[in-house]
Write a structure and sequence with these properties.
The complex is a heterodimer of chains A (about 400) and B (about 475).
Chain A: E1 4-9, H1 19-33, E2 37-44, E3 58-59, H2 78-86, H3 93-99, E4 106-110, H4 115-122, E5 131-135, H5 140-150, H6 157-173, E6 176-179, H7 182-190, E7 196-198, H8 210-219, E8 226-229, H9 235-238, H10 240-244, E9 257-260, H11 264-272, H12 277-282, E10 284-288, H13 292-301, E11 304-307, H14 317-325, E12 328-332, E13 348-351, H15 354-366, H16 372-377, H17 379-383, H18 387-391, H19 393-407
Parallel strand pairs in A: 1-2, 1-4, 2-3, 4-5, 5-6, 6-7, 8-9, 8-11, 9-10, 11-12, 12-13
Helix pairs in contact in A: 5-6, 8-13
Chain B: E1 4-7, H1 9-12, H2 20-35, E2 43-49, E3 53-57, H3 59-68, H4 92-106, H5 109-121, H6 123-144, H7 151-155, E4 176-178, H8 183-186, H9 189-199, E5 202-207, H10 211-214, H11 224-237, E6 240-243, H12 246-259, E7 265-268, H13 285-291, E8 295-299, H14 308-320, E9 328-332, H15 340-348, E10 356-359, H16 364-373, E11 376-379, H17 388-395, E12 400-403, H18 408-412, E13 417-419, H19 424-436, H20 438-451, H21 457-472
Parallel strand pairs in B: 1-2, 1-4, 4-5, 5-6, 6-7, 8-9, 8-11, 9-10, 11-12, 12-13
Antiparallel strand pairs in B: 2-3
Chain lengths: ~400, ~475
């Protein structure tokens, strides 16, 4: 009989769009590929239509008193509050219990937010032998501090301290702790993680159709252009000018920074508010959220990928995709966290300041397209970026932990 | 044979006397016409039109245009230094006044005097109505067409689609395209960049100043963003940028570095500053009335950046201090924007009402006379790309007390004195010193006449063309296939 893993998260992933959803969907695939039965439960905030939710997913009510952090309104901390709500008897724990599958062998908690929920489930009759897996997608406390600071949120110290405590607790208590970078792995181990494994972010190979390629080739600039794919996650736009600088004059007049994903409207607002708005908007081409087919075509046509990630733990899925593409990849140091082994690829450029970003953008757009031979040279390194290769360590570690738990 | 293509779009579209940037283009075109049969046979003219693109213009057409704008046949002195932010335009007030006067003149003779008196007494209300009209027009314009490109418009943009279909450019590989006109209004630098990459010609462009970006508050409207786009595109297009001062070159370099744009090769050229040959005995009555008096001359459009305010305040301090040895202060130039309060002060302040004179429509011959008869000149501008009035003053052998900022010290070197443009007290003290020491002023003038070497417009044009010729000698640029 297949072992069953329950994936706990703060977002559904039936239709994965942002990086967290994509990773979680691929974790599910990794378990399935390792012959696990996969169940999932998301405690989600607003914004997910019925077709995007799983059958066990539960809402975090908008009017819940748990929407306040210790009696006050603090923006951008719904993730933390979701865990407090879902683990509370006067919150959503009753609903969580009602949605639990009858048999669970392992609970994989993606990010630390729902760790208290997993701990309470393990206390329920029949769930005592469940092994707990903590999937650390980032070191969250410093990331949250950066986000709250960038938004000018005052009195964030307590929030950050609580998140830090939660992360450390999850790392210590987990039967398996999963890190996405070597750096994060070292952090988890330093916190006392007993069995920590590395499972980097990866990519799903894409193949664009001739029709989509032809259509996008007509629409996009004829001159070499750069692609920035990102979600509306705040650092993706609040930190953009910190990385690249406030002006896009480094793009030639006939080129564009092509932007795809839900970051578009936010990045537009951000760049339109600068002193150089006319210049910036003349160099932008915003595509919005694209279907997988369209995104595959756009990624295939890109001359280069831009990764202006200002900070944050974890590793960036978009970096993996960019590296896999074989096109030029220009990014910040933070963008390549977790992919240090690939920094010596000839098409990779690491920029350490806005000036270096601007100079490199000009240089990369002036180069001929990265050659097929060049791309083939690092084929094995690129193949290692596939999700199935990156995440295989998770079900393997879970199986070992499960074996150990059964032996007790 | 490789060709230099001199863009004369600005001259071809101009219908008023050539000053500032128009003058620069006109003088270069005139120089080329003079040289067509000699060494510069490889220079041809072109113009740009939004729909038809670049087209060749014949020498005959250029001659007609130059004659129309009273250009280089008689050397002009511009009251305005070339600046993207400072192009001459007949003010609405003047146009309305002319219209009203024309209408009154059509009335029966008996009605003209009362009609004129009626209109004159209501001049203030007409002025207020015009200002209100301007505000209304601006508000409607920005309401209908907000200044920023909307998000939805940007989302629907299609950058890969061909832009306006235009005939092929006449420029070939190895040619040099040279433009020094009002490019930010009249040209399409994105198109020029595309054509340059397709055909492999070189491009020489001008930078007069970056004031609209550096000091947008000294210009009309929010021009910083528009000009930042222009300068960024200029940087991508140009193989060489000719700047009219070291200051402008440094400013442009700093701006392009801040924007992250490429830094093209830049050289500094010196603009001509010849004074006109007075070919007529006719003198305007208001000018004639001044020539017999002691006066200090300030030639410039009356606008905030030129800083007439400091001179006005310096004069009020001198009057308040009991100074009686004050010559007239003559402002020559059309009123521009942002000086309504100053103009009211000049009209009503009893201390300076009879000391400060305004001359709005001075022709070149009369302007030369004013330079000749002035005690000295003043130039307290807050910022300049060059400072042509200072050069003209020196070319006329006149001492100038000038602002110490931006490019202005480049013009006068150690021949004249400089004062912080905001330091009203320093201006007052320095002016008093000059007024009380005419012999020292005379000494300075003698030194200026001895040492200052004015740049002629043909020399300037020759220098400009030599930079273009320099690009012709380098290996032909490879056209980029798309």
């Amino acid at each position: 009989m297949k072992p069953t893993v329950l994936l706990l998260s703060t977002y559904p992933f039936l239709e994965p769009r942002h990086g967290g959803q994509v990773r979680l969907a691929n974790i599910a695939h990794a378990f399935e590929a390792a012959n696990w039965q996969v169940e999932s439960m998301a405690i989600y905030s607003e914004g997910y239509s019925a077709q995007r939710r799983g059958q066990r997913d539960l809402p975090f009510p908008v009017d819940s008193p748990f929407r306040q952090f210790k009696g006050r309104d603090v923006p951008l901390v719904n993730d933390l509050l979701t865990g407090l709500y879902a683990a509370a008897d006067d919150g959503g724990f009753g609903a969580v219990v009602s949605q639990l599958p009858p048999l669970v062998d392992a609970i994989h908690v993606e990010q630390p937010w729902l760790w208290p929920v997993a701990k309470r489930i393990k206390q329920l009759p029949g769930f005592e032998k469940v092994i707990l897996i903590y999937g650390s997608a980032n070191i969250e406390a410093p990331l949250k501090l950066d986000i709250l600071t960038s938004y000018g949120v005052a009195d964030s110290a307590q929030v950050v301290a609580d998140i830090d405590a939660l992360e450390r607790r999850a790392a210590c208590e987990a039967d398996v702790a999963v890190a996405v970078t070597k750096s994060d792995l070292a952090t988890l181990v330093s916190w006392g993680a007993r069995h920590a494994v590395l499972a980097s972010n990866g990519i799903s190979p894409w193949q664009a159709t001739p029709e989509r390629l032809s259509s996008w080739r007509e629409r996009l600039p004829k001159a070499p252009w750069m692609l920035y794919v990102a979600s509306a996650h705040p650092p993706n736009f609040t930190g953009f000018t910190n990385c690249v600088g406030p002006s896009l004059a480094c793009f030639p007049p006939d080129s564009r920074l092509v932007v795809a994903g839900s970051v578009c409207s936010h990045l537009y607002q951000h760049l339109a508010a600068t002193r150089w708005h006319s210049l910036n908007l003349s160099r932008l081409e915003l595509l919005g959220v694209l279907s997988d087919e369209d995104l595959a075509a756009v990624k295939t046509l890109a001359h280069a990928f831009l990764l202006p990630i200002p900070y944050g733990g974890g590793s960036n899925i978009k970096t993996a995709e960019a590296l896999y593409s074989g096109a030029y990849v220009l990014g910040s140091e933070a963008a390549f966290r977790g992919f240090e082994d690939l920094l010596d690829l000839p098409e990779v450029v690491v920029a350490t300041s806005p000036t270096v970003f601007q100079t490199s953008i000009r240089a990369v757009l002036a180069r001929p397209r990265a050659s097929t031979a060049q791309q083939a040279g690092a084929a094995s390194q690129r193949e290692a970026l596939r999700w199935d290769r990156c995440l295989a360590s998770i079900p393997a570690a879970a199986a070992i932990a499960l074996k150990g738990a059964s032996a007790l | 044979m490789k060709t230099i293509w001199l863009d004369v779009s600005t001259v071809m579209a101009w219908h008023r006397p050539a000053v500032g940037i128009v003058r620069v283009e006109a003088e270069c075109a005139a120089y080329v016409l003079q040289q067509l049969d000699a060494a510069l046979g490889s220079v041809r003219f072109c113009r740009f039109h939004a729909t038809s693109g670049y087209q060749e213009v014949s020498a005959a057409e250029v001659r007609v245009a130059l004659a129309r704008i009273q250009g280089p046949s008689e050397t002009l002195i511009g009251g305005k230094s070339p600046s993207p932010s400072n192009e001459p335009r007949i003010p609405l007030e003047r146009r309305v006044t002319a219209l009203v006067l024309r209408l009154i003149n059509r009335l029966p003779v008996g009605l003209r005097a009362p009609a004129f008196e009626f209109a004159a007494r209501r001049r203030e209300s007409f002025g207020a109505a015009l200002r209100g009209y301007r505000e209304l027009r601006h508000s409607l314009k920005t309401f209908v067409r907000p200044p920023q490109v909307g998000f939805s418009a940007l989302m629907n943009s299609v950058s890969g689609a061909p832009t306006t279909q235009r005939p092929p450019v006449p420029f070939g590989a190895g040619d040099v395209y040279l433009s020094m006109g009002l490019d930010w209004d009249q040209k399409d630098l994105v198109y020029l960049y595309d054509q340059k990459r397709s055909h492999g010609f070189s491009v020489v462009l001008f930078c007069y100043d970056v004031i609209p970006v550096k000091f947008p508050h000294l210009c009309v409207g929010d021009v910083a963003a528009k000009f930042a786009l222009y300068f960024a595109n200029l940087a991508w297009c140009a193989d060489k940028v000719l700047c009219i001062s070291e200051c402008s070159r440094n400013d442009l370099k700093a701006l392009l570095a801040e924007l992250g744009a490429p830094l093209p090769d830049m050289s500094v050229i010196k603009l001509g500053c010849q004074l006109p040959v007075i070919a007529t005995d006719a003198i305007a009555s208001d000018v004639a009335a001044l020539l017999g008096q002691r006066f200090v001359l300030f030639v410039s459009t009356i606008e905030r950046r030129k800083n007439h305010e400091t001179l006005y305040r310096a004069y009020t301090r001198l009057v308040d201090a009991g100074e009686t040895n004050l010559p007239l202060l003559v402002f020559v130039g059309m009123p521009g924007w942002g000086v309504n309060d100053l103009m009211a002060d000049l009209r009503f302040d009893p201390r300076t009402k009879d000391l400060i004179k305004l001359l709005h429509h001075v022709n070149d011959a009369d302007l030369a006379r004013l330079y000749q008869h002035a005690l000295m000149t003043v130039f307290p501008s807050l910022y300049e790309g060059w400072g042509l009035p200072v050069a003209e003053s020196l070319a006329a052998g006149k001492c100038c007390l000038a602002s110490s900022v931006a490019s202005i010290p480049e013009v006068g070197g150690d021949l004249i004195d400089y004062v912080d443009p905001w330091d009203v007290q320093a201006w007052a003290e320095r002016l008093r010193w000059y007024f009380n020491n005419p012999s020292l002023v005379a000494d300075k003038e003698a030194r200026i006449k001895d040492r200052y070497q004015p740049m002629s417009w043909p020399m300037c044009a020759e220098d400009v063309l030599s930079h273009a010729t320099g690009l012709m000698t380098r290996p032909t640029q490879q056209a980029t296939s798309r």
